[in-house]
Amino acid sequence: MRFYDIFNGDADGICALHELRLAEPQAGTLVTGVKRDIRLLERVPARAGDVLTVLDINLRDNLPALHAALERGARCLWFDHHAPGDIPRHPNFEARIETGSDVCTSLLVDRYLKGLHRAWAVVGAFGDNLVTAAQSAAVPLGLPASDVQRLRELGQAINYNAYGETEEDLHYPPAELYLALSRYQNPFEFMADEPIFEVLRGACADDMARAEEIAPHLATPRCAAYIFPEEAWARRVNGEFANRLAREHPLRSHAVLVKAAGGYRVSVRAPLEQPAGADALCGRFETGGGRAGAGGINQLPEADLDRFLRQFAQAF
User: Fold this and answer.
1) How far apart are CA 218 and CA 308, in angstroms?
2) SS3 state at 73
3) Dist. CA 289–CA 12, nearest whole Å
4) What does pTM read for this prediction?
5) I want to staple 73 with a disulfide (CB 3.0 to 4.6 A). Which of 14, 48, 152, 190 is the partner?
6) Following DSSP, what letter does each residue of 295-312 receive, concatenated?
7) Domain range enclosing 230
8) Is residue 207 part of a domain?
9) Could you give the C-alpha distances from 60 to 40, 75, 266, 289, 313, in angstroms and in order?
10) CATH code of residue 282
């Protein structure tokens, strides 16, 4: 019997796994990658008796690999908040999937654990830009506002680290970042004892300063779109920049496009006051998807730029 922990490399995926393994320790193989590296089950050579735990990656995009693993006799527990498509019914498969705009994988694991490691769920929710949900989850912790703000900063820093074309763009490989977190039950001790938090926070501030020098390509009272150059800093910061825009302009939708070979990589945020439609918009394009409040397109061809901008302006 072998154990595999398969998780998104962003704050939500990392914190969800951390919560779960603090409560249910298990030495297994880590399978993860950059934020948009989501077809992770293809990397798992599952066989009879193996146990797969999957967190914060889309079921729909991994369905063929899941069916193959189940047919070979593996067991799988799946936590996620993205639109799953058809959920298989199989005696070896358990799905804990919800797609509401106020839920993320860290909060689903928190519910599963009955709040056992709530502080890390708050970190994950803040990282996923679910500010209201994170603040509500933090209330039972009885923390002063300054400590809640620190959890928010940690979530944003971890999430910023996930964005890039490859792990070479990142400051820390997600598996390495998870292993560093895994030594701490208390996120405040992690921030105090590890240099990682300050490194990420400083690097994010530097990249964000560059992003703020970019003028919007499209701007109306209801939406704004930015086009970033094909550079590592732009690939790293596009997600957190989109999240910041969403927080600062909650009635407006946002798109951040990063130039890539032959086209663009796209991040979309629906208005925070009405977090719906991002997944539907991105799903109209071949490599697009996401959830109601936030979506993306892995490869938008250059020829589709004008069509995307038109549909983006119309969608919200």
Assistant:
1) 12
2) coil
3) 17
4) 0.90
5) 48
6) EEEEEEEGGGHHHHHHHH
7) 215-315
8) no
9) 12, 18, 20, 10, 27
10) 3.10.310.30
> What does the DSSP 8-state code read for residue 56?
S
What is the per-residue burial (b if ≥16 Cβ within 10 Å, else e) of 146-160? eebebbbbbbbbbbb
Long-range contacts at 140-148 (CB < 8 A, ≥ 24 apart): 140/115, 147/188, 148/122
201, containing H or E segment: helix 196-211
CA dist 117 and 185 (Å) reads 8
Comparing CA positions, the residue from 148, 57, 36 lying closest to residue 104 is: 57
Measured CA to CA, the distance from residue 275 to residue 255 in angstroms comes to 14
pLDDT band at 107 (very low <50, low <70, confident <90, very high): very high
Whole-angstrom Cα distance, residue 193 to residue 216? 39
**CB-count exposure of residue 77 (10 Å: 0-12, 13-18, 19+):** middle
CA dihedral 228, 130, 124, 153 (to 10 degrees): 70
Distance CA 166, CA 35 (A): 9
> What's the half-sphere exposure (Cβ side, CA atoms, 13 Å) at 233?
14
Rg of the chain's alpha carbons, rounded to an integer? 19
Query: What is the SS3 assignment for 72?
Result: coil
Q: Quote the tokens at residue 73.
A: 């006799």
Structure tokens at 307: 């069509």
> Are 221 and 85 members of one domain?
no
The answer as to whether 204 is a domain residue is no
Question: Which residues in 93-111 are b (16+ Cβ under 10 Å) and which e?
Answer: bebebbeebbbbbbbbbbe
271 pLDDT band, cuts 50/70/90, is very high
- Helix axis angle for 145-160 and 131-138, nearest 10°, is 130
Sign of the alpha-carbon torsion through 177, 179, 182, 188? negative
